[in-house]
């Protein structure tokens, strides 16, 4: 579901946000979540936004405040993954789940998967944790994206992506003007999209163990304008279609056709934002012979039509010229 559906939550006054730092110190992921929200809280004031930061130990020890409703709760950890005892896992999820929207960032995402909180939902699990449990791929719909929002659950792969994730949340809740102010405070120029891939080369991740998977993705990336059929890709890399689908499911949390479609749509988004090609040209360059199919697929993935995406690109320029 699109992040824009959170807009109504931003009307709550005050909006109460809980951030649970599950690490041993302020990690990159924790800082990427906490600092932007603290900036927004200073900009808007306590009448509109209240941000509370707790340690996970406070919750496990029973020292955390009880009976306080938060509209949004996030558990954040960039530590090396370590399973939680079932009692601790239950205490953590029970503390957060009364929130209307809740989730996790970094390695904490796998705790939520193991707790059953992400069952059947699109989930951005850090790629490095894909091999930690066979259970994850069976319960959640794992995606290679930077972050996801599905069924009231938020997930982010952590690291520097936590900044993009938080700024996307800020825009959804409070609009692009507030997001722009926070970007200026943090000296950030560009916010990566939800559907951007986790930035580690497939060859580095799977090259030695899964060369056929790396080869298949390379074929997809090289054939955006004229997409190959799944059977053709399987034949070209020398494995059966069933084997190819199994590897995509296990390591990328998707089927080949869906992964290929999202790859083409990501390229289309880049072209819409970074070039002056017409929308029809962009669709053709990314393998869509039908303008309606392109628009429908784009809207399903990004929650916005190609035309609106192009208009959104033009708005900042129009705003800056009128201010001069």
TrEMBL record:
Residues 214-312 form the HTH araC/xylS-type domain. Keywords: DNA-binding, Transcription, Transcription regulation. Gene3D superfamilies: 3.40.50.880, Homeodomain-like. It comes from the Bacteria. GO terms for molecular function: DNA-binding transcription factor activity; sequence-specific DNA binding. PANTHER family: HTH-TYPE TRANSCRIPTIONAL ACTIVATOR RHAS-RELATED. This is ArgR family transcriptional regulator. It comes from Noviherbaspirillum denitrificans.
């Amino acid at each position: 579901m699109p992040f824009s559906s959170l807009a109504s939550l931003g009307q709550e006054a005050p909006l109460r946000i809980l951030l649970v730092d599950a690490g041993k110190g302020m990690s990159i992921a924790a800082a990427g979540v906490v600092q932007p929200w603290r900036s927004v809280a200073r900009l808007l004031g306590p009448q509109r936004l209240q941000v509370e930061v707790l340690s996970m130990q406070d919750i496990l020890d029973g020292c955390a405040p009880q009976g306080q409703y938060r509209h949004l709760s996030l558990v954040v950890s960039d530590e090396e993954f370590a399973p939680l005892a079932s009692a601790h896992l239950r205490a953590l999820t029970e503390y957060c789940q009364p929130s209307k929207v809740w989730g996790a960032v970094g390695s904490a995402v796998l705790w939520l998967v193991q707790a059953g909180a992400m069952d059947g939902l699109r989930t951005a699990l850090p790629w490095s944790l894909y091999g930690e449990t066979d259970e994850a791929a069976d319960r959640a719909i794992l995606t290679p994206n930077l972050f996801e929002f599905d069924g009231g659950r938020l997930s982010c792969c952590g690291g520097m992506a936590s900044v993009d994730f938080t700024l996307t949340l800020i825009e959804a809740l409070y609009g692009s003007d507030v997001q722009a102010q926070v970007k200026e405070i943090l000296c950030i120029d560009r916010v990566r999209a939800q559907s951007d891939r986790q930035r580690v080369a497939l060859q580095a991740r799977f090259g030695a163990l899964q060369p056929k998977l790396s080869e298949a993705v390379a074929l997809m990336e090289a054939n955006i304008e004229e997409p190959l059929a799944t059977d053709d890709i399987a034949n070209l890399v020398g494995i059966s279609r069933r084997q190819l689908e199994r590897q995509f499911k296990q390591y990328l949390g998707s089927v080949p056709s869906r992964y290929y479609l999202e790859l083409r749509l990501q390229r289309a988004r880049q072209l819409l934002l970074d070039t002056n090609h017409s929308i029809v040209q962009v669709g053709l360059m990314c393998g869509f012979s039908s303008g309606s199919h392109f628009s429908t697929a784009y809207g399903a993935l990004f929650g916005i039509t190609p035309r609106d995406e192009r208009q959104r690109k033009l708005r900042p320029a129009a705003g800056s010229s009128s201010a001069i």
